[in-house]
Amino acid sequence: MSRRRKHTPDVPASLPLRVNDLLFITEYLSNGRNGKRAYLTVHPGIKACSAEVGAARLLSQAKVQQELATRIKYDGGVTKAFVESSLLKYQQWAEDAHDYIAGASICMDAAKLAGFLVDQHKDLNASASDLTEDQIWSELEKRLAANKVAALPLPVVVQPLSVETAASSASLSE
Known about the structure:
Elements: H1 19-30, H2 35-42, H3 48-60, H4 62-75, H5 80-96, H6 100-114, H7 133-146, H8 163-172
């Protein structure tokens, strides 16, 4: 006698997802889209073969596919794990090609992602359009002095000639 498979009716996509389904989707996207591993993380007490079946079942549901499509649309499917694995792969390729500059750049990007390095940007409250020309030059000189760069000469501002001035200077040259 063969074992009958229990039929689970398809749940309409209009009903909200269960908490475990949402956790599965989050884990699925964060671990490189490995359904079996995501299912085992959400349901740690089950066997690996059951996790594979459960992941396939969840991934085939319309409401789960809709939620995945929505999340991928909004975050591009880019997760920290995806970026980390990509950086490590590209770093290995750079090392294999003996491209040490690219390898160092990738290593710096990975360090920033891991939180070892932080870009420091000074945020000015006023935009450049709100500052006067003297304020802009003063700020530039402060920043150059902080970096021990020789001061720049002030620019020479040339006023455009008016039609009258151009005509009088043309008559003087004759």
